[in-house]
């Protein structure tokens, strides 16, 4: 079953259809991208094959060149370019106009036959041979985002990190430094820190100004604090 049906008119977008089909076939697999001259086996009745393939696709790409709108076939109810787009709309299949070249504009409703009027409201993509690499990438990325079956076989999908793998980067570090998910036991000491330093499993903010003591946990021996001269103890007088 094709996921993408490429709709084009011979003489107005045939070469671009070949270019786009080959790029998408390389990325997602040839059997998922439908182009009539490639996909219809010899001796097969093409009319039934075309309609059946449109109905089973996830997206129809309607290639529109600079002569597409003025072609007389567009006003003919039996024209296959028109029939394929109409069938996609009837089956509630997403239709994406692909404008060929920099100057081709999206058709307006006034210039379209009534059955194709919805085409004017469809968000379009663009393919220009002078920007083909970027445009083909965008077309492929768009299709992968819209069709889960394509995303599952996307040969250009970014690799996801393995579960449980921690990747961090540290630079300009002097002394002890640790980056980890779970740490058991003690690790080094903190000296000469400026700003926030996290040293435990919870968040703490401690503000001190002047002489002060901070105690957390159990203190059994009391606190002795002297300001100014330290008094002599009994041992100092011996």
TrEMBL record:
InterPro entries, A to Z: TIR_dom (IPR000157), Toll_tir_struct_dom_sf (IPR035897)
Signal peptide, first to last residue: none
Matching PROSITE patterns: TIR
Gene3D superfamilies listed in its UniProt record: Toll/interleukin-1 receptor homology (TIR) domain
Domain TIR: 1-150
GO term, biological process aspect, one: signal transduction
Name of the featured protein: TIR domain-containing protein
Protein's organism: Streptomyces acidicola
């Amino acid at each position: 079953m094709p996921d993408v049906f490429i709709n084009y008119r011979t003489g107005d977008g045939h070469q671009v259809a070949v270019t786009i089909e080959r790029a998408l076939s390389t990325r997602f697999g040839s059997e998922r991208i439908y182009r009539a001259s490639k996909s219809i086996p010899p001796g097969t009745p093409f009319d039934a094959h075309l309609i059946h393939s449109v109905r089973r696709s996830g997206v129809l790409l309607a290639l529109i060149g600079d002569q597409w709108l003025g072609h007389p076939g567009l006003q003919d109810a039996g024209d296959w370019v028109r029939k394929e787009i109409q069938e996609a709309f009837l089956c509630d299949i997403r239709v994406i106009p692909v404008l060929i070249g920099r100057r081709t504009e999206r058709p307006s409703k006034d210039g379209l036959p009534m059955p194709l009027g919805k085409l004017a409201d469809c968000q379009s993509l663009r393919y220009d041979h002078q920007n083909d690499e970027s445009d083909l990438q965008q077309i492929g990325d768009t299709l992968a985002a819209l069709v889960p079956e394509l995303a599952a076989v996307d040969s250009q999908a970014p690799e996801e990190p393995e579960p449980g793998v921690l990747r961090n980067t540290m630079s300009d570090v002097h002394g002890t430094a640790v980056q980890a998910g779970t740490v058991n036991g003690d690790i080094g000491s903190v000296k000469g820190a400026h700003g926030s330093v996290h040293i435990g499993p919870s968040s703490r903010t401690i503000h001190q100004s002047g002489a002060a003591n901070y105690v957390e946990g159990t203190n059994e021996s009391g606190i002795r604090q002297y300001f100014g001269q330290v008094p002599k103890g009994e041992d100092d007088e011996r």
